Each structure stands twice: as structure tokens, then as C-alpha cells.
Amino acid sequence: MKRHRWPCFVRVGLILFLLSTFLWQPAPFAQASGVIFVAAGGAGSQSGADWANARDLHAALQTASSGSQIWVKQGTYAPTTSAADRSATFQLVNGVALYGGFAGVETELSQRNIAAYTATLSGAFAQSYHVVTGSGT
């Protein structure tokens, strides 16, 4: 009597499919969409995945990669918390878009209102030499 091998392949394929279905977990919104959410001082876990867990602006700029968007909630952002550090700066990242004008509830870029929800990058606290710098951007 001849045995057919195809039922074995079908079983193995089905097992692999079921395992991948149960083990696969979608990436968080921020990673999937390339958006990093920012609030003054950060919030929650500071993962940047959503407004409730917004990152600090320095951390967002350090972890952002080309193609990412950084959405900045209304507020004033200083490049340093030390009045003695006048050389501190927000270093821009090549290929990263930085947007302000968010109240902190938006889910679409088109929902921002730059007139109502201003985000200010200020050097007034430490009288910074350069608030924002960039190289090759």
C-alpha cells in the first residue's frame, strides 16, 4: 500500500500558520506609522507611542530615524534644564519631520492647529547660543 506525503505537508503548514497567527503581535501605532508623540517633560511610560505616553523632545530626536514624524504638543521646550548649559541644542535628524500645533488628542496630522496650540522651542531659560542645530538636513 502506497502512502501519500501531502497530508503531512498540509498538517505542518497548518501548524505553522496557527503558530504564526497566535504569536504575531502588531507593532504599536507609533512604530507602525512612524509617528513619535512628544509632550513637555514626557508622559506615562514615555514610549512615544501615543499622547498618553509621549516622549520628551530630546529623547524623541535621539531615537527618531529617517522617515519618522515627531508630533509636538503645545508648550515651551528648552534644549536644557540647566541654566549654566548655554551650548545645549535640539539637534535635528536628517529625514525626520518635526510638527507642532497639537493639543494632545489628535490622531491625524491634518487635525493640528498651529495658531491655537503653539509649540515653542525656546533658548530663553539658559540664554542658549543655538536653540536648534542641524547638519546635512
Structure characteristics:
alpha/beta; 137 residues
Tell me the number of structural domains. 1
Number of helices: 3
Largest sheet: 3 strands, parallel
- Read across the widest sheet, the strand sequence of neighbours is 1-2-5
- The span between the termini is 71 Å
Instruction: List how many beta strands DSSP finds.
Output: 7
Which structural class is indicated by helix and strand composition? alpha/beta
The succession of helices and strands, N to C, reads HHEHEEEEEE
Which percent band covers the strand fraction?
15-25%
Low-confidence stretches are: 21-32
SSE layout and pairings?
Elements: H1 6-23, H2 29-33, E1 35-38, H3 57-63, E2 69-73, E3 75-77, E4 90-91, E5 97-102, E6 119-121, E7 132-133
Parallel strand pairs: 1-2, 2-5, 3-6, 4-7
